[in-house]
Amino acid sequence: MIMEQEAEIVKKAQAGDSEAFGLLYDQYLDQIYRFIYYKVFSKELAEDLTSDTFLKALSRLSSYNVDKGRFNSWLYQIARNTVIDHFRTKKTEVSIEDVFDIPHDERTVEQLDALSGLNKVETYLETLPARQREVIVLRVWEGKSFSEIATMLGGTEGSVKMTFSRSIRELRKKYGDTVLTWLLLSASLPFVTSSYYIDI
Amino acid sequence: MKQDIDTLVTDICTVYPELTKEVASVRALVTELVTHSPKVDIDDTFKARLRSEVLGRVKDKVKPKVAVPWWLIYTVPVGVTAVLLLVVYPNLATAPIAEPLAPMEMENVSPAGSMMKMGGEESADMWSTTMEMGDAGLETSVMSADYFTATFSPDGRSINLAYAILSQSGFVVVSGPEGVVAISELMLPGEQVDVRLPMVSAVKSGVTYSATLYYDNGDGVFDLGIDLVAHDYSGQPVMMPMVAP
What we know:
The complex is a heterodimer.
Chain A: H1 3-14, H2 18-40, H3 43-59, H4 71-88, H5 109-116, H6 121-126, H7 130-141, H8 146-153, H9 157-187, E1 197-198
Chain B: H1 2-15, H2 23-35, E1 39-40, H3 44-61, H4 70-88, H5 103-109, H6 126-132, H7 136-142, E2 147-152, E3 159-166, E4 170-176, E5 179-183, E6 190-197, E7 208-215, E8 228-229, E9 239-243
């Protein structure tokens, strides 16, 4: 969906056209669901928070200004805040933006299972700040370009590229040799590197 | 997948050329991140149910925007201010305009020990007079010590921050017509010497770029939309132009 088309569709939806909002829903449902899933690693919770996100977006649609940014950027912001609000209700003292911030003993069985499938990647992501994790997940797992991530999360293409590269450099500094050894080992045991599949 | 990994590794090595020496471990790390990407399939029943629920609410939830006439945007704040003033100072509308004070009276109301004289030609330079008042608090609160000097390397492939002094943590960001071309690491308050700025993208020879100091908002990561430009005592951004060799 190109930007001008999208702006027209949003205006129609703002005027109460349900078909127009349906187009926006179809365009972004999967992306928002995955964005949330990567933060909570629980199917049920991801579904609840995705529902909340779209219902909030709907009730606040009249406040969205086409001239102030892309619709998807606005939608991602609502999704992020919805996840943060969810964790905030748990009244933890530390700021929690996603599952990687939750202490291990407070994670659900489903979350522990899903995260264990990530193997060492879980450990790597845990050591990074939430913003860097978001950039890595969107670039590596979602295959978004730096310019798309900049639109979604705010900032410039250059700053997102810098954040990504810095994160990898930091991880390499911490885990570089371990990863290399592990990868060389797993090359001889192909099943170790098989993709982790979450059936939801 | 191999192509994706190659692209990611190339991007990283463009920003941090020194990592080309460690490309094997960078590639291993990126490969591991890519390999373990969770595949998420969304339940079709959930999608359909939510779609029907959301669309069913569109007409109830969406309140069309009310168009506000442009003149109302300007007149309402003026009107509100006027009403507030009349509430606070009920006699404002009828009060006589104060007579100007005589020079002698002016000296009496100025702070004790001050060199400030409001009457005559000496009042012309209010700023320098204020600085002479000996109000150390005022002076330190408006003066910013932030300063830096940066130069391109002769081949234009990197930028060297020869010296910088910061009052709080921040970044030096170099931008040009094509956007941001280099961003420093997070610099802590105090002096910094010989800091190399990795290039985000290549620069064009002869083009003028500007290097600007931004204060970090506390997250340690530069974000153009969030981190604020540092300003000097005169209110000007702390920045310098740089011509690419």
